[in-house]
Amino acid sequence: MTATATPIQFGIFTVGDVTPDPTTGRTPTEHERIKAMLTIALKAEEVGLDVFATGEHHNPPFVPSSPTTMLGYLAARTERLILSTSTTLITTNDPVKIAEDFAMLQHIADGRVDVMMGRGNTGPVYPWFGQDIRQGIPLAIENYALLRKLWTEDVVDWQGRFRTPLQGFTSTPRPLDGVPPFVWHGSIRSPEIAEQAAYYGDGFFANNIFWPKDHFKQLINLYRDRFEHYGHGTREQALVGLGGQVFMRRRSQDAVAEFRPYFDNAPVYGHGPSLEEFTDQTPLTVGSPQEVIDKTLTFRESFGDYQRQLFLMDHAGLPLKTVLEQLDMLGEEVVPVLREEMAARRPAGTADAPTHAARVAQHEGAAV
Amino acid sequence: MTSADSTRPVRLAVVSAGLSEPSSTRLLADRLAEATRVALREEGVEAEAGVVELREVATQIAHNFVTGFADARLREAIEQVTEADGLIAVTPVFSASYSGLFKSFFDVLDKDALAGKPVLLGATGGTPRHSLVLEHAMRPLFAYLRAVAAPTAVYAATDDWAARDDDFSRRIARAGGELASLVAPHAAAGTSPTAEPDVVPFEQQLAALRVEE
């Protein structure tokens, strides 16, 4: 199967926070927020984006505790959108259940599924799922090694430190076309995650939201070097995803005025630096669509040409209507230009974005 | 670069948490830096001292707590400290300890950033009664950070600036001499710490767990 190659995929990722709208003081109900997330995901497909990714959280004020339930619904309501996570907790989910859930989702969505592994950043979540927080890193390593085995081997005998042994176990359904979902490893700060992604030849997703550029540059360079070191291809063939965060209005000053109260009160970075300081130091862009295009185009100069760009659009209490307007602008005015400009600037030999079709073709090529 | 006769100047970072301008904290910091420079020169080593006035990055330090990262200006200050061969750290005494600003700066450093770094401790106060702050608050902080603190730490009360006897000056000179002998080997080695992230190869992590592939 020779599907048209996509050099870079654009999409959105959501944390799923329930946050009061600082301009009205109103907090949406969990039900409203969950329905809003679904509407936002459907809108992503409507405006021509490639990817929707949801976070996984198990404590208020976050709602997305059950990503494959949500993504299963979206699979039925969409046709092209790739459904993903940001992130799936490899430490506290049983790898057997991850293997099953995401293989099932692959079948339902005809392969439009990938998954981003993360360790999570909420310590207390470990005991909620019967795990020991002191074993965070070893759990991530062992669980992921088992997950790969469950996806690539039909019958698994396995013994490890953290779960009961498996004897002659077959995880069902088997991955679609014998090709497991593509895996990204998400990281905010750990070089260990870049190393793990490189070791397996998986994708590396740099959250990129909070830290200054140099920090992520170091992580991505490390991942690219180690990807080559482990023989998966050249540095340019390594599969890199980046986060970003934008708020747009036709006129730059309108965007700034409207977004400021959301920025100033945002749970993650509010009450700190000014909007101007933060946009200067991080990928956050608040301005016109053209300003978003210009800033996003600088990412490839810092990090090399990459395969996936996800934007954080629905957070900090922004109303649904506003988020949908943002997605219209993103899909109609920003992404088409970025696709064209990035494709034109891309050197030969840069990897295309991973799709199920391309991976099946590669898998069949390798099997011949 | 590594030969003994082409030694580079050693770099001293001087961190002052004084709030007024001029401040007696900065005054003490400068005297400690000068004493260190003099002692190094006697050993044939040149020194460059760069000053970090925490007052100037106070807002950036607060932002770092809120956002989780240092902005460009604070990063410059942090790098000046972490890349130095030796550190002179001086704080005013507030409420029986180092100042909140002083502690906050060291709170935003990576926990390993000062490991093995020679450091000279100083504190200032309105009365000599607080002088043990050096031993009961500052020294444990730098012990936690695994810095190598010089045995002599210098406290300056208001009276010390007016004292006629040379005790205070002798103490400063002794402290400077101690820091000098701790940092001088860095000049000979010509080495400086690197900022590259080091990573345990993944095979080693798998092997440690005996995870089968």
TrEMBL record, chain B:
The keyword Heme does not apply. It comes from the Bacteria. Gene3D superfamilies: 3.40.50.360. It holds the Pfam family FMN_red. Keywords: Flavoprotein, FMN, Oxidoreductase. InterPro entries: CE1759_FMN_reduct, Flavoprotein-like_sf, FMN_Rdtase-like_dom, NAD(P)H-dep_FMN_reductase. The keyword Flavoprotein applies. Residues 11-159 form the NADPH-dependent FMN reductase-like domain. This is FMN reductase. The lineage of its organism: Bacteria, Bacillati, Actinomycetota, Actinomycetes, Kitasatosporales.
